Amino acid sequence: MAQKPIRIRDVAKRAGVSTATVSRALSNPELLTEATRETVFRAIRSTGYRVNRAARSLRTRQAGAVLVLVPNLGNPFFSQILAGISEIFGESDLSVLIADTKDHATAGKRVVDYFLDSQIDGMICLDGALSDEEIRQFEENGVNGRIVFACEWKHGSSLPSVRSDNNQGARLAVRHLYELGHRKIAHVTGPQDNVLTHVRREGMLAERAELGLPVRDEWIIRGDFSLESGRSAAERILSMEDRPTAIFCASDQVAFGLISTLRMHGMKVPEDVSVVGFDDIELSEFYVPALTTVRQDRHALGTSAARLLLECIHADGAISNKHSGPVMIDVNLVVRQSAASI
Q1: Are residues 153 and 258 in the same domain?
Q2: 129-138, 149-158, 159-168, 326-335 — which is least confidently predicted?
């Protein structure tokens, strides 16, 4: 069981003084006698209480920096989001720090330490990496209003978020393939514990149901947004006796890995099988064949998240009523050469 965080009232109890006296010792120690100051600071040391400098110095923006958590800096998907974030904060006096959360085990603790040590004034999280315990610590220390989720988010959290309409994107992909005449449509998913995977899968299944398309378990293949998972999915499809005529991939990276592997085994795209991706990263337009894909406005995700965080910072962590729900960014289908009619 996680240890409860030490609060200012715990220090007051240990020192035998009021919470107001502890606060005064931290903010205006010259107003107290030397004996009282020493008693309070001794209690702080013995309890391990951490001074929340971020909350105390927010209005003066003492840290002068914001942190952006990225789940994989090697993934080109995040480039335009980071560009959008940097554009907005470049107009302010806040620097942008970037941390890779690929190692989820240590990322969350590092973020908590950053905040409570007043090294950052706010955070944009591009990954649903924060645990329930970490979010609880932020809420108890009054800093949750200065964290914004972008791209991904965490179910059940009250933190504000900016996200693409992933459900609609999946629907657009399936409907496009249907309108090209495809009825045997496979889907390569993202990671099973990723919120985007579930939302896109829900959209895919809802559109199939609306169109009366069959759902076969073997045509829903687990992936993880990577080139390698595209390769593995292609090998699965090649082993099937009854192969799909079209494949909707949960990311462009998956689509690239899948198409390359199919090509190595003599299958042509789109002549033998059609492929649709998701994201519209820069390579999609120049890949051979040019990839039909669902376009996320990644630059808008970044600029919208940065503006929302700035609003929260300027409002002293208060979340505006107009942001009671997620900020949704529209998606659209970019039709290129990887999907054809049958």
Answers
A1: no
A2: 129-138
- E strands along the chain, which residues? 65-70, 95-100, 122-125, 147-150, 161-164, 185-188, 220-221, 246-249, 274-279, 292-296, 327-329, 331-334
For the chain, the average pLDDT equals 87
Claim to verify: residue 170 and residue 257 sit in the same structural domain: yes
| CA–CA distance, 267 with 66 (Å, rounded to integer) | 48
Q: Is the peptide bond before 289 cis (omega within 30 degrees of 0)?
A: yes
Q: Is the pLDDT of residue 269 over 90?
A: yes
Question: Is the full-model pTM beyond 0.85?
Answer: no
Alpha-carbon separation of residue 285 from 167, 292, 335 (angstroms):
23, 8, 10
Domain that holds residue 36: 8-49
Residue 2: predicted pLDDT: 55
Residues 266 and 317 in one domain: no
d(CA 291, CA 310) in angstroms, rounded, equals 36
**How large is the average pLDDT for residues 239-267?**
98
Q: Quickly count: other Cβ atoms within 10 Å of residue 276's Cβ.
A: 31
Greatest mean pLDDT among 83-87, 104-108, 118-122: 83-87
Q: What's residue 241's pLDDT?
A: 94
111 CB-contact burial (10 Å; exposed 0-12 / middle 13-18 / buried 19+)? buried
* Single-letter code of the amino acid located at 248: F
Phi, psi of 104 (to 5 degrees): -60, -25
Structure-token pair, residue 103: 């190692």
From CA 281, how far away is CA 78, in angstroms rounded?
Answer: 9
Number of domains in the chain: 3
Strand partners, 327: 162
Residue 66 has pLDDT above 70, yes or no: yes
User: 287 and 175 in one domain?
Assistant: yes
CATH number at residue 206: 3.40.50.2300
Query: Does residue 124 share a domain with residue 220?
Result: no
